[in-house]
Amino acid sequence: MNDSSWGAPPQAGYWGPSDQGPVQGAAPAGPTYDAPEAQQTRPMPIVPDEPAYGGHQDDDRGAARLSGPLFRDETQRPPYDVRQSPSYDPRTQPSDTPQAQPYGAVPQNPEPMPDVPPPAPAPQKKSAGRDLGAAIGVGVGLAVVIVASLFVVKAAFVGVIAVAVVVGLWELTSRLQERKGIKAPLVPLAVGGAAMVVAGYVRGAEGAWVAMALTALAVLVWRMTEQPEGYLKDVTAGVFAAFYVPFLATFVALMLTAEDGAWRVLTFLLLTVVSDTGAYAIGWRFGTHKLAPRISPGKTREGLFGAVSFAMVAGALCMQFLIDDGSWWQGLVLGLAVAASATLGDLGESMIKRDLGIKDMGTLLPGHGGIMDRLDSLLPTAPVVWLLLVLFVGSG
């Protein structure tokens, strides 16, 4: 080899020790390479003098940066699909072969978690719907007042009846005006109702009927002092209220006129309360079949059976031991009749309250509602007990 070749200029395509690289567009020397073919080849890229990352050109890291990062960010590279591989054969590998997921990526269709049954709800205890503590306390207080007035001075008990009638009329007329716009005159109703109870105790049934007629007439006249609009519905509601509250309550005063009147009234009250208690206890514990769902959804046939059973047993005991010349079988009949009338009376007032869109007639008695909510079973039961006692043992 001639040593002078070291100082000769480099031939075309010769790679010398310079870092500048080959001359762009030149073809390498040699018999297998000619110029026309070299012009058709793609030129090599020019390598910059200084690495892109800003370091020294002799640093090995510059070469690494020129050819790309050694460790690429896998999250920026699309996942590898095995179906794009040259060796992929759909006959041996299913098309649903799982694809590789990028590092740190969340699967688009994660496998569902195994079904875990929800915790069973805690059994709910039946609710009475009222404050039982307050209801029992008020009930005991009313019982003390009734018994004390009933067996000490009968006239005092007549006063208790009259007060209950006036308060009941006030509750009924107030709800009618609030919910329906019906203005039943309260003043003639209250005066006539109290007079009706006193007349029944003093003059008997004839006195009660006369007082009822005079009360209805007073309602008609009293309403004439106002505008004629709504006169018919107002006086109709007034006459209905006079019959529903004071006239039915007068039969309690009629029972009181007998020699054993206090025991007759006590029997009447006990049977009505026992009937309501039996209906509540049995219906709350075993009630499943509705008695009248459109009127009172809480009442059940099982509750009616409890009312009849409790009232018949209580009637037999009361007629045998409390009523003069009474018999146990008469008590069975009396108890059955009381259970029927008390249930119908309760349903009747439930119908009125449902028509008015209210739950209770008042709030005077905590745990009970209003006075009318306690008189609903007593009022229609009073004439039934009075009549059966007169038939069984006489008027006394």
Global outline: globular
Please state the structural category. Answer: mainly alpha
Characterize the biggest β-sheet.
Answer: 2 strands, antiparallel
Order of helices and strands: HHHHHHHEEHHH
Instruction: Tell me which oligomeric state these chains represent.
Output: single chain
Estimate what percentage of residues fall within beta strands. Answer: under 5%
| Radius of gyration based on Cα positions | 51 Å
- How far the N terminus sits from the C terminus, by CA atoms, comes to 160 Å
Proportion in helices: 55-70%
Residue-averaged pLDDT? 79
Low-confidence stretches: 1-39, 50-76
**Please, how many helices?**
10
By DSSP, the count of extended strands is 2
**Strand order, biggest sheet?**
1-2
